[in-house]
Fold:
Amino acid sequence: MSKKNFKKFWKLGRRDFSTEHFDINPDGELVIREGNYQYNVLDLVRKFGSPTEVFLPFVLEERLERLFDVAEQEMKRHHYRGKFFYHYPMKVNQNREFVLPLVSEGAHLEVGSPNELWLVKKLWEGENFHAKIRVLCNGPKTPRYINLITGLQSQGLAIVPIIEDAEELRLLKDFRGELGVRINLQSKVQSHWDKKIDRFGLLEEEILSLGKIRNLKILHYHIGSQVERENDLLAVLKEALRAYVKVRAQNPSLDTLDVGGGFAVPYEKKPMYTVESVLRRMFSALANASAAAGIPHPNLIVEWGRHLAAPAQISVFKVVATKVIPKGIAKFWYVIDGSFMTDLLDTWSIHQKWHIVPVGHAGAEKRHRVWLGGLTCDSDDKYADAEGYVLLPRIEDLGPGEDLYLAIFDTGAYQDSFAMHHCLISSPAKIVLQNGLVTMARKRESPEEIGKMFGW
Ligand SMILES: *Cc1c(COP(=O)(O)O)cnc(C)c1O
Structure:
């Protein structure tokens, strides 16, 4: 196979798979390109060790810019007079390195807990924010949460609590700022998270029975994450638009529809729907529904979290042991120096599949079918692709003293805050690549740090 074919084989260099920044160099090593800068991942792990998470802020920034560009283009096409806003859902990745570049590129924020809002407060008080940033607050409004919200509002931050039940509306009756309300839609979508019955938000008739809500600005829904079908995204939007028209008849201050998250990531590198197509259809539905109802075009908020964040990080592990599998669809266990359970928890919780590429020897012609195992003593700490195995270079083909490293793609969403300490495995180091420079954001966790968490 030629070099070009290896790039194709490992599904690199493709924007539809969000691997456009990745390539294989002539030595079979994984490289990352940022404009004319190039980073050699093998050199990086040789220098910083493994396991290491490699965060790519420029990927995050580019994806947000593209989202704004596409929205602008589609709004022009539909002569759309509402505005478009991106609110970054902080739960997707609360690391400072993630949040700051997004805010600097024009993202607003969405928080789901008082502790996330506390981080926003720190940024706000440190004057890291433009006065125009807006924060939406989801999640149960505990007394501490409400105190934080009202405190920040009185300091001049544009902060919008999203009401999820009638009791929250009562608790916020003295709130002077703008409000949102979360609607519990009846449409179902194909997604792990769209449960038959959920506890979030108010039914349309419940919202209408509340009568006029003072300063109601935003109708919000969030139907689930990783929505598999484009048509589902559109069907829920249309249901929400019908509700929007009715709620607005009662609340003329309502001017914004917030469609939450749900835009899927092509983790398995199979063709998927695009931002272009979804936004085109969304703005068309928005324009048509407003024309039919004779109302102004609503502003549109999207909170697509994993779509932006997942491709902005890869996790690199070293294969530290191999073991023959006597009977199985795969031939060998490759044990990595980290853990699927502790650091890529979705592997365990929802059987997440990952795109895995060898960091060196990517040009090897011969590959083994393997199962990957983690460092914990847990039989659940393992990974295989949908086919039932992973195809990786053969250890016996490595030169003396050479190691095999694996890059797991799209690890930027959710995995960091899910990380746990089964068997007290250390969290990986985190490095940041930006403007040709490599910086260390977080050291690999030491035994002392872990011991402390457990009272040692
Ligand atoms: C989790 C969440 C999101 C992000 O969802 P993604 O699937 O990552 O896009 C957005 N909005 C709300 C309210 C959420 O709870």
